[in-house]
């Protein structure tokens, strides 16, 4: 994997973690996400 792609994946991961982290527990619950699962959801977002 090249450097640019790695950097873009890292940025997308951090952005997803930040955005989900700002949501209330109720909002996350509505999406079917537990607060403890935010990092795994973010990892899955870059695997696509």
Automatic annotation (TrEMBL):
Assigned keywords, A-Z: Plasmid
Every YjiS-like domain range: 3-39
Record protein name field: YjiS-like domain-containing protein
Pfam families named in the record: YjiS-like
InterPro entries per the UniProt record, alphabetical: YjiS-like (IPR009506)
């Amino acid at each position: 994997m090249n450097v640019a792609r790695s950097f873009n994946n890292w940025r997308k991961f951090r952005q997803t973690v930040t955005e989900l982290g700002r949501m209330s527990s109720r909002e996350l619950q509505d999406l079917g996400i537990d607060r403890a699962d935010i990092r795994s959801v973010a990892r899955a977002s870059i695997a696509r």
